[in-house]
C-alpha cells in the first residue's frame, strides 16, 4: 500500500501549489492536525491521486460540487488550482452552467462571480 500521506502531499502541492500548502502547514495546530492529515490522505492521497479521471475533470467536478452545495469559500482556491489542472475558464463556465440547471441559478451565479474575481486576480483575461 502506498504512503497515502506522502502521495497526498505531493498531489496537494501539484494541484494547489506550494505557497498554499506551505501556508496551511504553517498555520495548522494540534487542534486541526488530525483534520489536515485526513484530507491529505483521503482527498489528496486517495481521490485526487487516482488516475481514473484527469485532474482537469476533477477540477470541474469539484467546482461544480462546491457551487451546488453552496460551499463558496473554497471556490477561489479551486479556481486558482485550474492553472495546474488544465481546466480552462470555458470548462469552469460549463461546469457552473450545469450547476444552474441541476442545482439552481443563484448558486451558479454566485460561483461565476467568484470565478470572475479570481481569474482577474490571476491575470486571466476572460
UniProtKB/TrEMBL annotation:
It comes from the Bacteria. InterPro entries: 4CMD/NDH-1_regulator, AhpD-like, CMD-like, Decarb_PcaC. One of its GO terms (molecular function) is peroxiredoxin activity. Residues 35-116 form the Carboxymuconolactone decarboxylase-like domain. Pfam families: CMD. PANTHER family: 4-CARBOXYMUCONOLACTONE DECARBOXYLASE FAMILY PROTEIN (PTHR33570), CARBOXYMUCONOLACTONE DECARBOXYLASE-LIKE DOMAIN-CONTAINING PROTEIN (PTHR33570:SF2). This is 4-carboxymuconolactone decarboxylase.
Amino acid at each position: 500500500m502506498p504512503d497515502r500521506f506522502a502521495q497526498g502531499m505531493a498531489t496537494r502541492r501539484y494541484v494547489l501549489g506550494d505557497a498554499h500548502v506551505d501556508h496551511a502547514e504553517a498555520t495548522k495546530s494540534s487542534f486541526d492536525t488530525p483534520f489536515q492529515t485526513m484530507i491529505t490522505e483521503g482527498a489528496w492521497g486517495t481521490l485526487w491521486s487516482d488516475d481514473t479521471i484527469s485532474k482537469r475533470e476533477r477540477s470541474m467536478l469539484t467546482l461544480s460540487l462546491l457551487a451546488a452545495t453552496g460551499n463558496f469559500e473554497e471556490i477561489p482556491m479551486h479556481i486558482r488550482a485550474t492553472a495546474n489542472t488544465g481546466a480552462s475558464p470555458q470548462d469552469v463556465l460549463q461546469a457552473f452552467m450545469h450547476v444552474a440547471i441541476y442545482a439552481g441559478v443563484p448558486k451558479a451565479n454566485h460561483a461565476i462571480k467568484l470565478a470572475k474575481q479570481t481569474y482577474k486576480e490571476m491575470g486571466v483575461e476572460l
